[in-house]
Specification:
The protein is 77% helix and 0% strand. By secondary structure, the chain is mainly α. The relative contact order is 0.16. The longest helix is centred in the first third of the chain and has 32 residues, at 4-35. It folds into two domains: 4-164, no CATH class; 181-226. It is built from eleven helices and no strands. The mean pLDDT is 85.
Length: 226
């Protein structure tokens, strides 16, 4: 029988492989934040408050060129629109939780935490503590992101640029994606979304990711009805 404790630590364990890609990503953010003119405290605070890697990278780049605050807020909103899709996917599984639980899990709802949590929710078992699994995965990611940001802020200037650490996160997501392509609709959705993301890479504010996600969903739903 699954208990809250078992689910919590199971979530942490399943998140650990993803952290291999997240940690270098956090270190790079810390380095870029300082080069953009943020103080060490501001760089770390952004990781705590915003807690969204792609948005943080975009925001520090905008800050470096003196972009008005309103434009930065709108850009951050657009970059993170994909979280609306995550929320819609997770909502049926957490609708019976109290507001405090929903608030905590919404804060922890990131790309990497969602990837393992939604897979766990779709497993056909009768566990009543899957939200604890989500919590464990989310906290594992949050902790690693804060630590890696701090390492980047305080020690990152000593990391050689030739290491190309920024590519490790992309490799991590590819490793997560491939095993999940178990049927025709998911394969078509992945191929179409990937193709659209590449073809529309020139769109500003990372809008190509939003367009690709929408196309992937439409293609997946269309193929399921055939």
């Amino acid at each position: 029988m699954q208990t809250a404790k078992i689910e919590f630590f199971h979530g942490i364990k399943d998140e650990l492989p993803i952290l291999v890609g997240v940690i270098p990503f956090g270190m790079i953010y810390g380095i870029l934040a300082l080069s953009a003119g943020l103080s060490k405290a501001e760089a770390q605070a952004m990781s705590v408050i915003v807690f969204a890697g792609s948005a943080q990278f975009m925001l520090v780049q905008l800050a470096a060129v003196g972009t008005p605050a309103l434009v930065m807020i709108i850009t951050g909103f657009v970059v993170n629109l994909r979280h609306a899709l995550y929320s819609a996917s997770v909502a049926p599984h957490v609708q019976k939780l109290n507001p405090l639980w929903k608030t905590i899990l919404s804060y922890l709802l990131t790309d990497e935490a969602y990837a393992v949590a939604i897979t766990h929710y779709y497993r056909k078992d009768k566990s009543r503590y899957k939200h604890w699994y989500f919590l464990g995965a989310g906290l594992a990611l949050w902790t690693s992101w804060q630590i890696s940001t701090a390492v980047g802020v305080f020690l990152g200037t000593q990391v050689p640029p030739s290491w190309s650490l920024d590519f490790t996160l992309a490799l991590t997501f590819i490793a997560l994606l491939i095993p999940s392509l178990k049927d025709h609709p998911s394969l078509l959705a992945a191929i179409s979304a990937g193709a659209v993301a590449v073809l529309t890479a020139g769109l500003p504010y990372k809008l190509n990711l939003i367009v690709a996600a929408i196309i992937g969903i439409v293609v997946g739903l269309w193929s399921e009805k055939k």
